[in-house]
Amino acid sequence: MSGQKTATSTVDALLNGGVVQARYVDVTTTFLEQHGASVGELTPEVERRLRRKLYVHVLLLAIFINAMMFVGISCYFESHLLAKHTMVYTVLN
Known about the structure:
Oligomer: single chain
Number of helices: 3
Helix content: over 70%
Order of helices and strands: HHH
Shape: elongated
Number of domains: 2
């Protein structure tokens, strides 16, 4: 409850002409103020390379996660089948 009251009181204070504290300012704006001069313009070629790099990384991560899940499930079922097989083998002997 106190979190809601604090957030509401902060909004009310801002609507009544209060000053925004630095911790509530958008992080992107602060980053651009610090590093905006050293970052070049985003051309279509750079954007295309950046998008392709992002897609490759996300695709590789998804493939890796799916492969690990498949290996885990395969090992589980294989061990489950082997355990039943050994139980049958011990009962027969």
